[in-house]
Design a protein that fits this description.
This protein is an alpha/beta fold. The protein has 9 helices and 10 strands. It starts with 6 loop residues before the first strand and ends in a 7-residue tail after the last helix. The relative contact order is 0.13.
């Protein structure tokens, strides 16, 4: 049976019951993709009605939720059974899962139960010629691989999406249908969570970060860590979507080239001695040509 044109996002909640940032990114991305199919964006929230209400602000026109205590006692079994049941009932075109340890478990179990395909490590998704093209990094980001589901529109496709593939946008709309979805009957817990201990130390959620800038002993003292914050603030919004080569290229061109290479080793040094130097690889036509090459060819 053919799918409809809706695109859903699966949303995790944190220890306080709030939707995680990656989940909100997926909700907005699902809404944007569904809009290009003339469908609707939806969400499955593994949490309370309040969490579903918050998710609805980010573009979902419907949000299913379940706050059954069994979801906390067994992190994978009941949740994956609920997700599989809802997919089977409503048949959405695509379902976006968070590319987190538990999200990968959910997607794997749902795929096995329903016989669906998975695209993992998705860093970009867009609709082209009526189908969704996803981009996956390979060889530590040196290569970007584009692919599609061959049976999209016939069977639901599952995408495991990394942080930063979309941007969470609070649309401020609160007209979504909020629906409590019961757990399917006959769920057998595969595990029981006995105790959960929050690690002390104020470590940030690096998995949900779009850009990570770190500093160590080279800064000299804790007071100079502000330099790292200044660097992070100076990065353009497009930095998060760059591959590793382009990130390195941007940092060299903006930080190393003006103050060092062109000063002590380039134009300023030669001009100080009355020499008008012209270097072949600084010819603007060479630069323009190289800038348009794929990163794996530079």
């Amino acid at each position: 049976m053919a799918t409809n044109n809706d695109v859903w996002a699966v949303v995790e909640t944190d220890g306080s019951g709030k939707p995680k940032k990656l989940g909100l990114e997926l909700v907005t991305l699902a809404s944007e993709l569904a809009g290009q199919y003339s469908g609707s964006g939806g969400a499955i929230v593994l949490g309370s009605q309040e969490a579903a209400d918050a998710v609805a602000q980010y573009g979902a026109t419907s949000a299913f939720y379940n706050a059954d205590p069994r979801l906390k006692g067994d992190l994978t079994g009941p949740a994956s059974a609920l997700i599989a049941s809802l997919i089977g009932q409503h048949n959405p075109r695509l379902v976006l899962f968070p590319s987190t340890p538990v999200g990968k478990d959910w997607a794997g179990r749902v795929a096995g139960k329903l016989g669906l395909g998975i695209e993992a490590d998705v860093i970009e998704a867009k609709v082209e010629d009526g189908k969704t093209t996803v981009v996956n990094p390979a060889f530590n980001g040196a290569l970007r691989v584009s692919s599609r589901f061959t049976n999209e529109g016939e069977k639901t496709g599952l995408l495991l999406v990394r942080p930063g593939a979309g941007t969470a946008k609070n649309a401020g709309s609160g007209n979504a249908k909020i629906i409590e979805a019961p757990l399917p009957d006959g769920i057998t817990p595969g595990m029981t969570l006995v105790e959960s201990v929050t690690e002390k130390g104020g470590v940030p959620d690096l998995a949900g970060a779009q850009v990570i800038v770190a500093g160590g002993r080279g800064l000299g003292s804790p007071e100079k860590f502000s330099l790292v914050n200044e660097l992070a603030d100076s990065l353009p919004t497009s930095y998060q979507s760059m591959d590793s080569f382009n990130r390195a290229e941007f940092l060299e061109a903006s930080l190393l080239l003006p103050g060092y290479i062109l000063s002590s080793q380039g134009d300023r040094m030669s001009m100080a001695h009355g020499v008008e130097g012209r270097y072949p690889f600084l010819d603007h036509r060479v630069v323009e040509f190289a800038a348009n090459l794929s990163p794996n060819l530079r």
